[in-house]
Structures are given as C-alpha cells and as structure tokens.
Amino acid sequence: MSEDNRNRETAEDVRHLTADELQQIEETYDPELRFRVLAWPMTIVTATILFLLSCYHYYTAGFGIPQATVHRGLHLGVTLLVVFLSFSAFGRKEIKPGAFAPFGLPLYDWVLGIAGLIAALYVPWIYSELAFRVGNPLTIDVVMGTTLIVVLLEAVRRSMGWPLPVIAILFMAYAYFGQYMPGLFVHPGSSWTNIVNHLYLTSQGIYGTALGVIATYVFHFVLFGVMATRIGLGQLFIDVASALAGRYAGGPAKVSVVSSALLGSISGSSIANTVTTGALTIPAMIRIGYPRHFAAAVEAAASTGGQITPPVMGAVAFLMIEYLGLPLTTILTAALVPAFMHFFGVLVQVHLEARRLGLRGLSAEELPNAWKVLKEGWLSVAPLLILIAILLSGRTPFAAAFWSITACIVVLVIQQVREGGLLAGLKGTAHGVWEGFILGAKQSLSVTAAAALVGVVIGVVTLTGVGFKIAYMVTTVAQDWAGSVHGLLAFLPFKLMGVPTLTLLFTLMLTAIVCILMGCGIPTTANYIIMVAVAAPILGLLGVQPLVAHFFVFYYGVLADVTPPVAMAAYAGAGIADANAFKAGNTAFRLSMGKALVPFVFAFQPALLLVTDNFTWTAFALAFGGTVLGIWALAAAVSNWLFAPLRWYERIALVLSAILLVAPDLTATIIGLLLMVPVAARQLLLKDDAAA
Fold first, then answer.
1. DSSP category for residue 101
2. Which of 5, 147, 381, 584 has the smallest CB count inside 10 Å?
3. What whole-number distance in Å separates Cα of residue 573 and Cα of residue 278?
4. d(Cα 519, Cα 615) in Å, to the nearest integer?
5. Whole-prediction pTM
6. In which element (H, E) is residue 228 found?
7. Mind listing the pLDDT tens digit for each residue in 286-325?
8. How far apart, in Å, do the first and last CA atoms of the chain sit?
9. What separation in angstroms does the CA of 51 have from each of 30, 432, 442, 488?
10. What's the CA gap between 386 and 407, in Å, rounded?
C-alpha cells in the first residue's frame, strides 16, 4: 500500500503502538538504549550497582563532591564496569550461562569491565604522586593508560556505535604520525608514551572538563528528568499542551510542538522525546489528515528542540559554564530567544500546512480540560519550579539538582500515600525511587563513556594545536571566496555586503557543514565538546564573541539529529508513523529551518542572545523582528501557502525576502520587506475574495 493511500485510512485504522513496540523503536534508533537481557543473578547485581551510583551522586550533590580527579575516576570506573555488563559486543540480547560465560556474560566482558574499573581508579589512587609522574610516566602508568583508552573505545562502540571511536582513533593517529602529515598539518609527532601521558595523566585528556561536567552536573539532571517523569510531569506537559493548542487548525501537530517544548525542559534526548510524545501525537496527526511522513517529521523537529530548551539544554548548558566561565543564568538567558525561534518556525509551518490541507482542530470531547489537568497534577510541577528558582538564585547547579530530586521524592511519597495509604505508599515510593535511580544511572552510561573518549580528542587537539591549523585553513578559504563574490556583486548600485561580512558568512557556512557532518551518529554533548575545540576557534579568529561561537556550533550539532542520512530522531518518528524514513528526515530538516537560520542571525546580530557585549534593545528589536518575518516568509515559501496558494515567482520572492530579512544589513532588510509586501498583499486579497 502506498503512503498516499495509507494517508486516507480512517480513524479506526490508525492504531496506537504498544509499550513494547515503542521500546523496540527507541532501541532501533538509539543505540544508547540497547541493553542486553541479563540472567537473574546479574540483573540484581547490575541494578544494585546502578542504584548505588545514583545514590552516590545524589549524596555528593547535596553534601559536597570529593576531589575532582577522585570523583571523576570513581564515576568513570563504575560506569565502564556497568557498560560491559549492560551492552553486548555483537548485539546479542541474551547469552546462556556456561564455562565461558559466567552468569550469562562472556569472559571477555568480565575482563574488559574489570580492566576499565581498575584503569579508571588508578589515577585517583596515585593522585598524591601524580605531579611527579606527569611528563615522566612509569611503565605501569603507560600500561594503565593504554588499557583505559582501549576499553573506552570498545565501551563507546558498544553503547553508541562506530563514529566517535573512529574519530578518536584518527586523532590519535594524527598525534603519532604528525611528521608524515601534509602541508599545514605537519608536526613533529609524539611517541605513544607521550600521548598516553597527556591523555591519561593530565587534566587535558580523559579526566578533563568533559568528564568532569558529566560527573558533576549532567548525571544529576538526567536523574532529575527521570524522577520528574515518574511523578507525572511529562504527561502533565502533554495534557496542558493539548488543552492549550489542540483546538486550533491541525491541533495535534501544534500539541506536538508545544508539548515537546515543555518536555524538552527536563529531557535532553531527541529520540526519547520523539517516542514519548510521538506515541500520542503522531497517530492523532495522521488521524486528522496530515501525511504520515509529515506527522513523523513534526514530532522529530519539535523533539529535537528539547536539546536547546532551558534549563537543561541537553546538558550543554553546564559544559558552557566550564568552557566560558559564565554563570548559568547568563547562558540560560541567551538560550531563550533562539529556542523560541526554533519552535516558532515549526509551529508556523504546521499551521500553514493545516490551512493548505484544510485540517480541523480537535473537538472539545477529544481534549483534556486545562483546569482539571492543573488541579490534579499541579504538585508534579513543584520540583521543576524549585529547580528553576534555585538556578536563578545563583546557587550551584548540583545544589539545584539535589533539592529538585528531593522534591520529586517528596511528591512521589504524597502521590503514593494518597493512592494506597501510608504503608502501601511508602512501599510504592521505595519501589519508585529504586526504579528511577536505576534508570537515571542507566541513561548516563553512554554519555559518560562518550565524554571520556571525547577527552582523547580534546587531548590531541591541545597536544598538537590542530584546532588552530583548521581555523586558519577555513578562514583563508572563506576570505578567497568572499573576495570573489564581492567582485561579482560590484554591479549593484548599492553596497550589499563588504568583504569582512562575506568572509564571516562563508566561514559560518563551512563551520555549519562541519558541525552537521560531525554530528551524524554522535550525541549532542560529545559533538559540542569536539566542535568547541575544533570549530569555535575558527569563529574566534574573525572576532565572534565566545558565547556566540559556542551557541553557533551547539545549534548546528543538534541539527544533525534531523539531517539525513543519519536523522535518528526523524527515523524514530517514521517508525511510529509507518512512514518513509528518508522522506520524514528531509521534511524534519525543512521544519527545523528556524534552528538553521537563527545561528546565522545571532552570529551577525549578537543582541538576539540578550546578554552579549554592546547589547542594545534597538539592535535586539531589529534582529528579532527581521527573524520572525524571515521565518514566516520562508515557511510560506516551502509550504506553498500564506493565505492562499502561492505562484512560483511568489515563492521565489519569499525565499529571497527571508534571506534578506535575516541579513545583518539595514539595506538588505528593507529590500526584503519590499519583496514580501506585494506577495502578502495579493494573498490577503485572495483570502478576502474566498471569504466573500
């Protein structure tokens, strides 16, 4: 049956997937969730280790974190042990116990897990002597470092796939074979001993900032997201979004956008968000008449926005604290307008598509009552409000996480006691905390291993200086292109863009391409860390403010989740919608155009981030207004609808108008408006004629 025919199915033909089917889809497109089935003894052992790991982090968040290297080493060691207990080498879900597989785990998994634990704990163990070892490592130091690097490569391969391990291997090969590199990239090369010394014994490698942020901040917020979901906050967001947006044209699609924006405030996973909200919204979108691929794309595009939504921002907000040395409130403030623009861009397109297809909203009988939803579920919002209040007060993020997790536990107690009485309620709470703490630790396994391996990449960058070599090469190419294009524009009677502006434009374009390519198959957090080391210096050479440069590479790294051929969030949505995956990916990328446009806007107009240097409200108003109009014009062009069908030349005019409206030049903005006004005027006349 073709997709067009499937789109004509009746409401009864569109079924909701079961929990097992949704889990299968999530595991298919998210390797971080492909946990193996353990035999009974190991199920208890692994669960206990995970629970204790969460307890350790919960305690340290509230009562103090040990010395940094000790804290990071302990977190990494336990994580590596559990990774080899939880992820199989070749994707086999279950292995029968035997002589070569004690308790259902192959001997090599036991060896790798224990070796990773020992090698990770070795550096904290010799910490008092570390200052004497750095630069002059002992043989045992090199053996332990080599062991940890090998174990990390395999741990990340199992839990995330090949892309990041391959990148790490290539970077280490570059460090070792530097004298054989061509042209600009040549360097003296380093011995394996020196490479291990730098990556293992210093704070510039595995035990560096990336692992520190995961162990100090990210784990706590992953745990908070899990606990908040268990007390019903995620479902409350979906119900509130339904009550607010469901009644309007194309209601389920607008519910998808609003609920994903809300859910994104506590969840940093594009795929998990897609499956959680998409299980409800995608069938509803198909039921009222949206094409299947479009329904999948809407949910994927909206869910990917969760990673740029304050206060969690897919954990990147906490990395920015370390890299930029700015308070969290500054970073969250800077994220507000760009996040709004992304969801605004998706919302405009689903609205125009609904108008073009003549789709209805949901009836009152199909919608929850907003007052009833808030009355019954207001208590589940309390932990999030506590989190935000403590963050805004200036206290540490891990203190905010501690008190918000505590609030989740208190709410869980209240909910359970209300349902089953005191004794049953306490038992239910204990069970809920047990499962929540296990799941929270489980969801941090792959990101911890990835962060440690990213430390290898960062270590090579600092050891060889390759980041600045790449920056020089890219800016040189951009300058050559800018000079050529400026010459081609010389015929214009007015000056549209100078060479410096064109140089920055081409540099941004090249940087964006690199970020998207690097983001294919690599999680957002890891991609951001690599791009900060490799791509951000490119923008720094052209005078782009550090905060702006970091946001730019972050946004384009996130965009990879909806960019074919590795658009995992879109493919997960397509699995729920039973749609063509590649078509869903292309449409999701188109729906995410706000996220693609906005980084260019704030690169040229930093005022859009609210907290940059030389901020003025006038500059902000011009940037904000131009971006809103530009997104609307581009949405109309790609949707072939503004207030009525568009002619081909009107679509071209709107595309040009959108580009000029977001350009960093007043002349360009005026020209963009002049192109847009006649199209909008004719469309309004057509709308009035149709109404008459």
1. B
2. 5
3. 7
4. 31
5. 0.88
6. helix 219-230
7. 988 899 999 999 999 988 887 888 877 867 888 888 889 8
8. 40
9. 23, 12, 9, 64
10. 8
